[in-house]
Amino acid sequence: MTTPPSTPSARFAARLKTLRISRRRTQAEIGHHLHVTPDAVRKWESGRSLPDPDTARALDAYLNASGDLYSDYLADMRDRAVNRTVTGHALSATNVLADSAQAVVEFGTWAEITNTGEVAITTLHTRVRELIRRALTEPPSPVATAAAELNGHVFALLRGHHAPAHARSLYATASMSCALLAWLAGDLGALDLASVHGAGARSCAAFAEDPEAAAWVAAVESKTLFWEGRFEKSAQTAARAAALPTPGTVAVMLACQQADAYAKLGDAERTRTALNDAERAADQIREPDSYSGLFSCPPGRAANYAASCRLNIGDAQGSIAAAETAFAAFAAEDGYGFGTIAQTQISQAYAFGAVGQWDAATAAIRPVLDLPPEWHLETLVARLAPMNATLGQPALRTSRTAVALREEIAAFRETAARKALPAAPTEDR
User: Fold this and answer.
1) Which of 16, 46, 119, 134 is deepest in the core (most CB within 10 A)?
2) What is the Cα–Cα distance from 69 to 66, expressed in whole angstroms?
3) d(C-alpha 186, C-alpha 177), whole Å
4) pLDDT tens digits for 250-285?
5) Cα distance between residue 14 and residue 44, in whole Å
6) CA–CA separation, 407 vs 362, rounded Å?
């Protein structure tokens, strides 16, 4: 047989060296982690040899390569097999065996690519949880772009074949990345895209057989329905999901969403009942949230909902008190997003205005109006609309404070942060 090319593993070698340098790792550190000698790592980087499959997977995970390094490894393994040819003097049986060996390698390569191992699944799940956390503190557009890229990667993997447990894990990750995209689309005012991403999230959650994922997907769909003005449907969607056996704070969120929708309908009795349900759900929490970040409802977020709900049923003093509870929670612990804090500031400002305290209202809303343009969410614009209407009433038209606030709210609306979003998924799942 002829000898293989001197550098059959150029892709793997090049990516390995680039990743090692960018991650600031030495060959000795990698060798220590993988229980091999530094010389073995040098040979991999020079293209003189390749590790075994398990070591290649471990190396991909150690360098946070998200499967790219392992894909290059498989491609180079395939090229090695193709480049091994039999000379003209070999027996015909050897040719048959060589062809058969190549077929085995190609099948093994295909199986490795289409099956997803524990390392890849864990990496994908970690990435979606990271994006859900980032969504609290970063503008929505870059997070949406990253989530769409992750979503596409997960969908591509789902087209392969997997062990049932692995498939469910992938579907759970897909459901949460779709749910994140739906939430961000709603924040940017793209309710049509929010609906499509929400439907995709629901479909994936069903395949995942994950009650917590299904409950958060319902929370996202309830949010979209709320901003579409379909308040009764929003409350019903949240109420149905409240019966799911879930850990963490999702039951609190679903009760808060029911209260929010009922308050918009002017149903004070059902609003108060739902707020009481939220308090009871918070008292019954025994396990932490699996995802946290955007998909969690800690005390300050629940109090923000209460401030808005009480305002909408005419209880301005109750709204002011709930806002103070929320601000105390914001100060006591991290983990609250700029959107939740801004919504609370808007509710407090409007409540102060409802009782005639316009200087206090101006001070309360100032941090919202000072937000940079990339954080001018459509949901915040919508929450500012009632205050703008109040400021336009005849009794306030000659007030300099009222006039200045109306002008700033109008400027905030004009710079709302709706950006182009990634297209919603259309493939069958």
Assistant:
1) 16
2) 8
3) 14
4) 999 999 999 999 999 999 999 999 999 999 999 999
5) 9
6) 13
